[in-house]
Amino acid sequence: MPALISLAIYAVISLIAFILYFADKKKAQNNIWRIKEATLLGFGFFGGAIGALLGMKIFRHKTKHWYFWVINSIGLIWQIALAIFLFIKF
Question: Phi-psi category of 34—alpha, beta or left, where left has phi over 0 and alpha has psi -120 to 50?
Answer without folding.
Answer: beta
